Amino acid sequence: MGDELSGPGARADPAGKPGGLDPGAGPDPGGGPGPDGEPGGLLPQSFFGRSSVAVAPDLLGCVLERRSPEGVVAVRLTEVEAYTGAADPASHAYRGPTRRNAVMFGPPGHAYVYFTYGMHFCVNLVCQPEGTAEAVLIRAGAIIKGVPLARLRRSAARTDYELARGPARLCQALAIDRVLDGADVGDPGSPLRVLGPAAGGSPGPGEPRPAGAIRTGPRVGVSAAAEVPWRFWIDGDPTVSVYRPALPRPRRKT
């Protein structure tokens, strides 16, 4: 599932062969829109009880909120990727359940957090009914609340656009780690929650766009099923990460 980092200063790259998304695709998020500039209500479990390919574009513009003793940091989602479990060789669930991916086989609307490269975390949102392991990888977004705290956690970021540009950077900015693996993002008392999009207003960085502005293309850094266009992002948003294909592994010398 896209175990990679996005480079500093990256922008959405047309080399990913983006395509437009049908403006009529997907239902309205169950959380309902909030007032101008404010997130909507919590997304219900039923929102996630669908195919990850249907859920992924509907998550764009929604808000992932992390509450911790240090404070609240929230990010409006601008880039995601869908993974379809047993049918998807790029998915962690492709070969069945393990201790690492157990949450993917549980009920929808829970966070699947994994550790990668020995130093980074990535967060996914589980989709489909229990027993069918699908998930959406949260790749990037715009910090809309708790910017000072996110800056402290991401001191290497040169601009606020870079605070959550890339899945590992997003987890660092929100202090997401394996402790949150299995968190119910629809529970009002959860430290990690997903809220519906804001309504009205002129969209700024990280804010919802019309459906026609959602682009699709290959997923980043995967070698299996690399051509599948299950990466979704808001076209032109400065918080979207760069597209990079998987690099071939060097052959061992014999």
Q: How would you describe this protein?
A:
The protein is α+β, with helices and mostly antiparallel strands and 254 residues long. It has one domain: Roll (3-methyladenine DNA Glycosylase, Chain A), CATH 3.10.300.10. Helix content is 11%, strand content 23%. It is built from 4 helices and 9 strands; from the N terminus they run E-H-H-E-E-E-E-E-H-H-E-E-E. The longest helix is centred in the first third of the chain and has 8 residues, at 52-59. 51% of the residues are buried. The model is unreliable at 3-29 (pLDDT under 50).
Structural class: alpha+beta
Helix tally equals 4
Instruction: Please identify which CATH superfamily we are dealing with.
Output: Methylpurine-DNA glycosylase (MPG)
CATH topology: 3-methyladenine DNA Glycosylase, Chain A
Please give the largest β-sheet.
Answer: 9 strands, antiparallel
Number of domains: 1
Low-confidence stretches: 3-29
E-strand count: 9
Distance between the termini: 30 Å
Shape: globular
Provide the CATH top-level class.
Alpha Beta
CATH architectural arrangement:
Roll
- How helical, in percent, are the residues? 10-25%
The averaged pLDDT comes out at: 83
- As a whole number of angstroms, the C-alpha radius of gyration is 17 Å
Q: What are the secondary-structure elements, in order, as H or E?
A: EHHEEEEEHHEEE
The percent range for strand residues is 15-25%
